[in-house]
Amino acid sequence: MDDAEAADPFCLRPGEPDALLAGHPWRRFAVLGDSIAEGVADMVPGYSTLPFADRVAAELARVHPIAYLNLGRRGLRAHEVRAGQLAAALDFAPDLALVACGANDALRPGYEARADVVDAELAGLIRALQDCGALVMTVSIFVRPAYPSLPSWLRPTGTERMATLGARTTALAANLGTVHIDLARHPIANSMDSTSADGLHGNARAQSVAAAEAVRALGRMLAPGPAPAPEPPHPKDP
Predict the structure, then answer these.
(1) How far apart are CA 229 and CA 133, in angstroms?
(2) What number of helices (H) and strands (E) belong to the chain?
(3) What is the reported pTM?
């Protein structure tokens, strides 16, 4: 584990993933979605170079070898993910799947009027994967206080739209029984230094924090109750 990440209170502690995922049953992990699934991110010194979903796959594989398929591709809206990725994911026959999309819908004008349709696309993805026997993970991504890369006329509503998407995805996850990672109100969400230079995507620190939350969510599902005590952060060199 890299030095800065090991000292970051929101990231995985040494030995924590092995303790949380010990004996996990998953052997085939599929990821569907947009740039969040693909892993678009700027690197940050001291943090893992693995993006969110790839890091989760790597931690699962440390416990037991898994087959991994990441179909994520930047720029896609929810209906495009469903149309272009679901069939391949089902052919892969995953027993664990991550669905991460909707942000490209939420950042477009008129999202409020289309939100129910976006929810239906997400639900269609989730139910199809569940019907094939997969445990499905969902994510509400970090909601930033500003989105400076958006056109000026869209910036005032960017945060509001992303907060709406996060709340709706969290509610959908509760209704459908997914393992949900709610990052929308995470403490680092307000910190623009966890954002890539494009002003939209989380950087390597955000990716590591998201992976930590995903691993912990899976750990809670495997063993409800108090989490194993992780090792303390390594002290920094003087």
Answers:
(1) 32
(2) 9, 5
(3) 0.90
